[in-house]
Amino acid sequence: MIRPPFPPGSLTRRRFLAASSAALLPLPALAQSGGPAASALPSDVDVAIVGGGAAGIAAARRVAASGRSYVLLEAGPTLGGRARTRTAFGMNVDLGAGGFSRTGATLAAGAQADGLALAPLPSGRRLFVDGHEARESAYDAFTAALGKARRDMLAAVDGGKDVAASVPLTAAPPAPASSAPLPPDIWTATVLQLLGPLSCGRALPTLSALDLSQRDAPVDDLTAPGGVGALIEALGAKLDARTDTPVTLITNSGRFHSITVRGQRTPIRARAIVLAVPAPVLAAGALRFNPVLPARLTNALRALPAGALEQAAFLLPGNPLGLQPNEAVLARAGRAPAALLRGRIGGSDLHVLTFADALAREIAEKGEASALRLARDYLSLNFGLAAERVSEVVCSRWGTDPLIRGALVAASPGQGGQRRVFADAVQNRIFLAGEYVPVAGWGTLSAAWTSGEAAAGRALALLGGPA
């Protein structure tokens, strides 16, 4: 059940930065695990779903509801993909997706149908300058700068042109009519951080302006009190889902495909496949195909490199920043490490920082020692908090996880049209699903979920509909 929204007046217009978000993710007991204790894998199914993240779970739920035979195969020990909830500091901690949108998606509807608790997220972000919440005029100036950046990007890609996202955003402004110098735009660096690294995990010069302008992702306005990762995993609890079951080879056998699973002699025959494996894993060739994937698809996958986004969670007792539960914070760019802060998760002392690009790669490589140092630097330089206020962190390391290999993918300059390739069926019977597949709204948990449902729908249409 969704809790009532925050009462009127609890979020002032100073906190209203919802537009900036668009520039920008009970535990199951019934999912079956691979290994000797698991029941034997089926030898023949209508639809095989490869990959147990949000997209794969959504696809499996739709196929299961149709009455068609299926199996969901996940290489890792748990379902959920980058939506993952860990136990730390005596509570559930999301080190991946922390929210999702109810707009245009069926993820929330599925959670409600299964009786899983949801809670609203505050709209927008709190803006801080030099350790204090920004004044009303600063919110207005930031919103104006962000709006101008979006308009400039849309103008730069008018007619389908594609350039580096930095080009329209860093072009020199026209000379003023007066000889008096204009004051520097103090929000430019913050806007560039938000639109590039903090949104996609990569710097703007490496991003396609066309791809970024087409994103238009809905704002995350819902979360799960027990953790978004736990919610996604629970949505797969009643499925025929096999974890610790890595697929090594998919072979086109004409009227069906054969799926080879590590440790199993006999392949699984499937009349259709939903391939819900992260794009960076496919791009790296970690899953083999016979015959190989079409060059058009492999080129498209390589044209959308993965970004780097890692999270560091920690306790900050006493609410020194004066935050409401689940509020997001953006500090003006300066000497501090660039990051996004989610504060007082569920009304607790838990806070989560998301670092991007080079800082995220450092965390992925070096782990919690680097995450602790960066979290302390962020809090000290932005808010003047003493380092000892944070004594311990837990962090994600998506960049070094071989089953994930980074964060969301975004097109390189000149490659903004490549995402459309992912809508095509592969070898007539394989349908792609994941956050990277939609042309609009890509890179979100809701996008992954809806793409899984769409891929399952296409697979069922190939088979002639429900059983």
UniProtKB/TrEMBL annotation:
EC number, UniProt record: 1.13.12.3
Pathway info: Plant hormone metabolism; auxin biosynthesis
Signal sequence bounds: 1-31
PANTHER family assigned to the protein according to its UniProt record, in alphabetical order: FLAVIN MONOAMINE OXIDASE (PTHR10742), LYSINE-SPECIFIC HISTONE DEMETHYLASE 2 (PTHR10742:SF410)
Keywords in alphabetical order: Auxin biosynthesis, Signal
Annotated protein name in UniProt: Tryptophan 2-monooxygenase
Keyword Mitochondrion: no
Superkingdom to which the source organism belongs: Bacteria
Residues in coiled coil: none
Reaction(s) catalysed (UniProt annotation): L-tryptophan + O2 = indole-3-acetamide + CO2 + H2O
InterPro entries for the chain: Amino_oxidase (IPR002937), FAD/NAD-bd_sf (IPR036188), Flavin_monoamine_oxidase (IPR050281), TAT_signal (IPR006311)
Family: Belongs to the tryptophan 2-monooxygenase family.
Amine oxidase domain segment(s): 55-459
Keyword ATP-binding found: no
